[in-house]
Amino acid sequence: MRFKLPSLHYHAHPKAGKWEMIPSKPLKGWQDFALAYNPGVAFACEEIINDPQSAYELTNKGHLVAVITNGTAVLGMGDIGPLAAKPVMEGKSVLIKYFSGLDSIDLEISEKDPHKLVEHIVALAPSFGAINLEDIKAPECFIVEHALRERLNIPVFHDDQHGTAIVVCAAILNGLYLKKLPIEEAIVVVNGAGAGALACLGLLHQFGVKKENIWLCDQNGIVHTKRDNVTVYKAPYARDTLHRTLEQALKGADVFLGLSKGRLLTKEMIAGMNSRPLIFALANPVPEILPEEVYEVHPDALVSTGRSDYPNQINNILCFPYIFRGALEVRSSCITEEMKRACVQELQRIAQEGEWGSCGAYEGTLHPFGTEYFIPKAFDPRLRARLPIAIAKAAINAGVSLLGEEQLPEIERELILEAYESLPTFCRLCLIQSVEKKSFLRPSLIFSYALDAQDCWSAFKGALLAVQGHHLCSFQVVHPKGSAHVNDTHFPQHSWGGALPKTAHLYGFSCLPSNVTVSLNSQASNNKNSLFLLEEPDQKTKLYITRLVKKNSALHQAVCVLKDDDSSKMTWEVSEKFNLPSGLYIQDETLYIPKTTSLRDMIESAALVIGTHL
Length: 614
What we know:
about 40% helix, six-stranded mixed beta sheet
């Protein structure tokens, strides 16, 4: 109840609701009015008549996702109707916008008949680039999704099913990897036989879980072949067995996946599971069993919940924004199984690289891949940089995209820039790589922790692995003690011989369109360094440079000025004098950083030191 008053205030103020429309074009006078509406808009209409695909260039269709519900299965509240469901759908639209950059609108439709609901959505579909079905009860949700996939040529995604399945599958695969158990041998018990649970089983089966190793339970116990009225959706998992209860199913099991009700599982019920079990108690807001209760019985268990106050939260936010972004980037006509599997595999890889500084941390601690971190966190920028491109590639390979592989480099550059532009170091590297001055191309970041700060090394290594994972930079790494990493299996074998220097080199990634470079001139006067563009770039290149330099200058608390829209004169001013954060000092060519410094602050401080003189 402690959230009630703050939540109501949040939804009501300063403006009711959670999103508003903001024009993407200027409307400053009659000239703009004539272009936006009559008579200029007629030319856009005629273009779309001649070429319907031009709607993706001339309207917001290509970046607009509809979140559609009839309010029959809303979160833990059930059938509350379309109007009461609106706050949830608004929230979903806001999440799509924040995490993917796509626009979204919520539509609450008062229609419980699934066939009529399909007709309503089909009639609305020309307005949107993709459709997210939300909180429609089973089995109607299966009927609606299947019909829409058959009739529409835009992506349709029921997040309650497939978003849940993708995130759960990635976490279970990583959990089995940590448990060192082949997926083909895993005994999986699922409690709750709704849309999400059945989608999880379908995707897990694609990755290798055998149907004879699956126990499906619902409110009546184990789904078995002697039961009456088993639905067509549950029937594939019905067991020929004399066992009837969840507790019986759990004996000798490796995985428990709960998508059911809180406090349903007891310590006694999980005691008979195999060693180091995977316990996924995903009921919200109260899980089937609390993690601390699991650890009393199985101290080495791999535990996940749906809550943010415990490690390894299963949250669909890790999936649905990026599924839509990847699909729309290449104009995919649908969401295929290949695209879902690609999302699962990329989520796996990101988690296996470990947590790093810009992701946030549980209780101030960064975790390597392991018991307390085997699924990424919601605010990890690697998700936006890498998931959409993996999904887009899968759509191209599946033959369901209108655009081809030649578009991928440009898409990847934009995704990486969006994901990391809040990190000044990243923008410095991008800027350095995007100019023609050769001395800028190989900045050397020099790190050395105190020799007793070995706990920081794994975090530093995790950050570099993350950087490597999406080809942002290449690097050369040594341990704080200076020893070579010939025995560190996380890093590729080095081709060079001899002792490695005590340095880590980060090489910049160009985010300019088509690897464009621009000529810049640096001048020093009045204790300021000024950077000037020497030629007129195109508008898109100017936009990239402006974004990079503004973010880069924020690192130095300096000024970035673009004189006006018609001028190429961009000036970047940085003071020649700077103060290091408390506790940092420079000796010879090494920046010494105390072990209490966060990983992000460590990298940013190093960029500050090397970046004063461009």
